[in-house]
Amino acid sequence: MLSTSTILAEQSEPTSSPELIVSSSQTAIASNDAYISSGSTIPVGERNSTLFKRAATMFRQGVPYAEVEAAIMGVNIFHLEKSLPDNEALSLIKSAARYHEESTSITLPSMRSLSSYAECPPDVTFCVEKIAVIGSVSMLTGASGIGKTFLGGELVISVASGTPFLGLATEQGDAVFVNTEMPEDAMARRLWQQRQARGLPLDTPAHIITTAGTGMSLNEIHDYILAECHARDIQPKVIFVDSFYLAHSGGDECSATDTTKRMLVLQSIAQKLGAAVVFAHHETKGPQAGKATLDKASGSGVLGRFVAAHVSLSRLDAPSRIEKGSALNPFEPVELMPYRFEWGKHRYTLPPEPVDLWFGHPIFIPDSTGELAGYNLLEGSNSSQRREKTAKAKSNRLVDAIRAHIDTTGEKPTRQELATALDMSPDTLRGHIDKAVDASLITVDSSSRAHRFSVVNS
Predict the structure, then answer these.
(1) How does residue 390 score in pLDDT terms, banded at 50, 70 and 90?
(2) Is the sign of the CA dihedral 153, 156, 157, 159 positive or negative?
């Protein structure tokens, strides 16, 4: 294998004519590049990353430096919407050569005597206090649909802005969200709303890498993340991967061997970029209340043993509440849902105390009053059970409001009166009323212009 210095020095004139090299090398490039194979030009916003990735691909295929340079400079001239200056294109090629060398070389540390440490070595570095360790991998688990993506988005936004995450200190720096599940615009909308809800500036350095729908393996995602960060000269503090089951495609999550291989790939990302990697993963099926957090992750026990920290997000068996203004719109009511964030393991400290939270779309808010401390986790981990229990709680609130109005005024309430009492819009209330009527909990008196409501058997 050529060293970086050898590759960079290999810039003599090619043995074949530049035209032939450009033609033959671009044929190889075109087979893997949608723009070039279709005959279209590469837009301005994608010039750097496209040229870098094409150069890196050619180096990985063993193409000599001079031929890579000739081919990429040809692409720069003929296939870009607007060509880069020659010095910028040449710099990208050199960066791709360095990236190739770094990604294919292994440096093993030598044995070191304890007596060689004149002072106590430094402690590990957290980019998110008690969760994300530089150079290591941590895991966030939770039931499907519980809100792991929202929480991961907040983690990325918090590090990018250097603001606390669930009250925990962060080290500010670039942060990357690896989106394996959603269309890019949908994920960008969530992060954009979270940034706006927290009042952070537009230039907050949060980035999205979307692999959803590509079928990329974790090894390919590994190379893609490194290539994108090198091409854009980004050295992220944290990388959140959402989620592990898609990045794990092609392997058996219950296999210790398969899982270990994939965890080592994530650790390689962390160590090569000097970042903390946190990934989202689903929990085992069935009730989670009463289980130790460490036992909730689905698949091989390697997951819990490998990670630096394992944190879990769960719903609490507590009533939701309505606030008058949402984080995005001060004039729009928002429903706050109760959650608990807890540690199952921490390699470097004792597991911290759980953090109780309210979720008001699109952000989580720590419970500063302690009102959630006495509640247990909600039984039933799957989303249908949670929705059923939530719907029942809302119907009970509606029934209680009808009874209270009748007891106070002696009259059946109208929809507008109930909406005022429950602090929600009449349109939102309409859905709750329909469900309560279908469940034979309330009846509708339509004899007057404004429909009035009463409780069955009351």
Answers:
(1) low
(2) positive
Rounded to whole angstroms, how far apart are CA atoms 427 and 413?
Answer: 16
State how far the Cα of 254 lies from the Cα of 261, in Å rounded to an integer: 12
Residue 225 identity (one-letter amino acid): I
Cα separation of 314 and 357, whole Å?
10
Of 402, 403, 420, 412, which is closest to residue 452 (Cα–Cα)? 412
For Cα atoms 442, 447, 451, give the angle at the middle one, nearest 5 degrees: 50
Average pLDDT, the chain: 83
Distance of alpha carbon 261 from alpha carbon 252, whole angstroms: 11
Angle between helices 218-231 and 86-104 (to 10 degrees): 140
- % helix, strand, coil for the chain, step of 5: 45, 20, 40
Quick check: 402 and 418 in contact, CB under 8 A?
yes
Task: Kindly report whether the global pTM for this prediction surpasses the value 0.85.
Answer: no
d(CA 277, CA 156): 11
| Inter-residue contact 309 to 343 (CB < 8 Å) | yes
pLDDT digits (tens, 9 = 90+) for 219-267: 888 888 998 898 888 999 999 999 887 765 566 778 888 889 899 999 9
Tokens of 96: 């791709």
Span 150-154, average pLDDT: 98
Size of the chain in residues: 458
Residues whose CB is less than 8 angstroms from the CB of residue 408 and which lie 6 or more positions away in sequence, other chains included? none
Residue in this structure with the two tokens 């090299």, named with its chain if needed? 21
Query: Tokens in use for 28?
Result: 């190889």
